[in-house]
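Hey L., structure's done. Input below.
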Amino acid sequence: MHSNIASPLELSHSGTTIAAHGPISGWEDDETSAAITITIQQNGVSATNKTTVMKGSSSWGMTLVAPNGGGFDDGPANGSASAVVQLTNGGSEDYDWSNPVTLDD
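Output:
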């Protein structure tokens, strides 16, 4: 399984909410699902959420909410992610990635 964080990501609710999403491709025969955790950081504000997708999914999506009354602005941000991919033999594989993203309302 290969994934990424799409850009730009849409801001809403006065910059407190991000609609995050990204593509998934290349599922291997022995993979059954992936638990994906995404974190977006900008100007000292960080929001994290996670979702689980099943083999065959071509994308993931989730809403991230800024904690403690914080907010995000239009412009560059840092996106980081991890995926724990479950395997048919009961094991798992971990993957981490990061890339710059743009936030836009």
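The CA atoms of residues 25 and 61 lie 14 Å apart. DSSP finds no helices and eight strands in the chain.

-- N.
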